[in-house]
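Field log, afternoon session.

UNIT: design team B
ACTIVITY: writing a sequence onto a fixed backbone
BACKBONE:
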C-alpha cells in the first residue's frame, strides 16, 4: 500500500538525512527499526509512525511541521519562541510561519 496523498515528508526525511550525511542504517538504528523499514518510509511504501516523527525532529533539531511540509521554516517552536522573547517580537505574528488553514485564504 502506497501513501501518496502528500509525500512532502518523504522528500524532507530523505533530504535531512542526506544533508547530515547520515546513512539509512544510522537513522534506522536511531529509530530502533530496521534499515529496510526506514527505506520504506523514504520511498513512501510505509507510513512514518508518529513516534518516529518525534525522534526525527530531535535528531535533526527541526519542527514536526517542517518534516510534514506544513511550513518551510525548520526552526523548532521552542527555539522560535525563545528568539521571539529575546527580540520582543510577538510569536503569534504571521511573519515567521506562513500557515494557512483549509478554508482560509
Amino acid at each position: 500500500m502506497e501513501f501518496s496523498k502528500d509525500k512532502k515528508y518523504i522528500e524532507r526525511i530523505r533530504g535531512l538525512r542526506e544533508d547530515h550525511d547520515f546513512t539509512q542504517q544510522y537513522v534506522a538504528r536511531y529509530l530502533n527499526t530496521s534499515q529496510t523499514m526506514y527505506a520504506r518510509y523514504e520511498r513512501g511504501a510505509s507510513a512514518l509512525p508518529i513516534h518516529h516523527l518525534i525522534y526525527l525532529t530531535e535528531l535533526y533539531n527541526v519542527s514536526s511541521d517542517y518534516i510534514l511540509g506544513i511550513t518551510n521554516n525548520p526552526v523548532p517552536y521552542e527555539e522560535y519562541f525563545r528568539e521571539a522573547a529575546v527580540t520582543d517580537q510577538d510569536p503569534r505574528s504571521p511573519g515567521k510561519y506562513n500557515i494557512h488553514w483549509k478554508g482560509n485564504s
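LOG NOTE: The chain is about 55% helix and 0% strand.
NEXT ACTIVITY: expression trials, pending approval
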